[in-house]
Design goal:
2 copies of one chain form a homodimer.
Chain A lengths: L7 H6 L20 H8 L4 H6 L1 H14 L5 E2 L6 H6 L4 E3 L3 E3 L22 H14 L5 E6 L1 H10 L7 H9 L1 H25 L3 E6 L7 H19 L5 E5 L6 H5 L5 E3 L6 H8 L4 E6 L8 H15 L4 E5 L9 H13 L7
Parallel strand pairs in A: 1-4, 4-5, 5-6, 6-7, 7-8, 8-9
Antiparallel strand pairs in A: 2-3
């Protein structure tokens, strides 16, 4: 594999000193780029893009070329895991994912299984294509959804404001909920190992719906599975946990073997650092809507963010995925502000 | 007006000592009760119920009779305010509110005005009917949406996971956003005064979408308007601010003249108390999905909540509106557990 020319993000994740703060954006490979839309519109749908390694690699690399980010993240979807387990999904335009079959009772387990990681072969092929295309320019991030977030979709069948069906299962059938979490976790661990085998340099686990639980329930119900994932993978590559909305659980996340904790834009950096302790790297957390402002305002907020997190153990990012109607020029201002900023190391 | 036989909630709100913790539920008048559904199904739609004072009063009183709560809250909707300002809304079954016209540019302001509070006369009539029907059994709570949450709907035109259009306006046209906030605030203040004139004993302001802003933006953009509302009303009746998701702003909310701060279920009670300081009353915060569990589990979580908040300056509630498919018997267990619980006052 080509030697890395830019390993800023890996060093930041490991807590090593860096010349400047590295930066990437969640959803950087996507609808913000006209170049992405051109590829996407040539296909029948989102899933065709996810499942076609050459094209997935192409859109993965686009933000490295066009925006100048310090890492690529493989273009895929967290829902490939439930699909490999037996629940296929459809991506409905403007509405989001939809699962024709869901898990609501004991009988529904007949439809699912712990997946053979080889079923997601197209992801590893996309990783290999991407690494060849990147040729060492920047590291490549692999990812998966956290078991709780995947359970939410498998039980609910679609997005939801409250995911009350999923939460109902936790309270009414904790045995089924834990059985499902266990199956998702086993699948996820072998899937992430296969991504590392294929060559990704780091991993991120997205617990997108963490914020609908409270601290105790998150600790009891989600944390043990996140710990299993972190413990299995952390010795191989640096792993980031991003539990969106779980401001109440940063201390628990910090107790795992992950290296980096994602911080959403609602969580003040100083609070996140106090909760996480001094050792972990923090990632985030500009409000994505700041990128709707003018350039001066974007630079101001970006610098404030950099100063709040400090010069080390920080990976700059937004506090959420970049919104699809964001102007790429505004993203460039965000990135360029970070790249040209010099921390006052004497402070 | 009939003398109040049960003023627990008012005393708790004022920080006075109480024999036991008072309890009510957000959305207690609603789809959880078969008696509500019977009234609702006899009508053409949700709005007919909101706009018919005798029926709005009937469903407002139902949870007092059936569930035994310590307060009624007038059956209405936060969206009557934007409607009175000129933007009518429709309540689309299973989808939520929808505004045919929205505010996205300067020109759209031609469609709206600071409302004459008399346009919401049906609400005050519903309050009068309710007070007659309650005959002093429990206090009646009036309410309105917070200006930021109302702006979200007026700009976005419907519910949204991100309200990115509303947040875009804040960054791209702060002048328009503040102009709109000002108009909503003026309307809301006169609307809430008219509710107090009609006889409500306390008020709650719901900032349902507070959690999509960060601390600085919430402070700059939402707090000044909440302060104006609190300052104008707090000398008349105790006022509660419930900024859902704004765990980061509890200290700011506590700096206003409100008496009570609503706490969502994600925010640990000890954290809320530390942020709010010792003076304010806190309201909340059981996870609504706990009511899906069996009776023993519900009682256990309810007692844990009571012990976390302590015996004074606490109004028991859920941390969000009760979910429509909740069994009323489970709500009864929640309420009865609170009513029969004796705090160890020596601790």
């Amino acid at each position: 594999m080509a030697e890395l020319k830019n390993d800023l993000i890996l060093r930041a994740a490991k807590g090593q000193s860096v010349e400047r703060t590295p930066v990437w954006l969640m959803r950087q490979a996507g609808r913000i780029l006209p170049e992405y839309r051109a590829v996407r519109n040539s296909l029948s749908g989102f899933k065709e893009l996810v499942e076609t390694p050459e094209l997935a690699a192409e859109v993965t690399i686009q933000p490295v070329d066009i925006l100048g980010v310090d890492a690529a993240i493989i273009f895929s979807d967290i829902l490939v895991v439930p699909e490999a387990m037996g629940l296929t999904y459809e991506m409905v335009e403007k509405k989001g994912p939809w699962f024709p079959k869901t898990i609501s009772s004991e009988n529904d387990f007949a439809n699912i299984r712990v997946a053979d990681p080889n079923e997601l072969d197209y992801v590893y092929k996309a990783i290999e294509h991407t690494l060849a295309g990147l040729n060492g320019r920047v590291p490549l991030i692999g990812f998966a959804g956290a078991p709780f977030t995947i359970l939410c979709y498998m039980v609910e069948g679609s997005g939801s404001k409250t995911f009350s069906k999923a939460r109902k299962m936790i309270f009414q059938r904790p045995d089924l909920a834990h059985k499902l979490m266990d199956m998702i976790t086993e699948t996820t661990i072998s899937y992430l190992h296969a991504q590392v085998d294929a060559g990704v340099h780091m991993l991120q686990v997205f617990d997108s719906w963490a914020g609908i639980l409270d601290k105790d329930l998150y600790k009891a119900f989600s944390m043990p599975y996140l710990e299993r994932i972190a413990d299995s993978l952390s010795s191989r590559v640096p792993l980031t946990l991003f539990a969106k909305g779980a401001h109440f659980s940063i201390d628990d996340l910090a107790s795992t073997s992950c290296r980096t904790i994602g911080v959403d834009w609602n969580t003040p950096p100083a609070y996140a650092r106090a909760q996480a302790g001094p050792d972990k790297t923090l990632q985030g957390n500009l409000d994505p809507t700041v990128l709707y402002a003018d350039g001066k305002e974007i630079a101001k907020h970006t610098i404030k963010m950099l100063e709040s997190f400090g010069s080390e153990k920080h990976i700059a990012n937004l506090g959420h995925g970049v919104y699809p109607d964001t102007n790429p020029d505004s993203v460039k201002i965000f990135i360029d502000t970070i790249k040209s900023y010099e921390h006052d190391k004497n402070q």
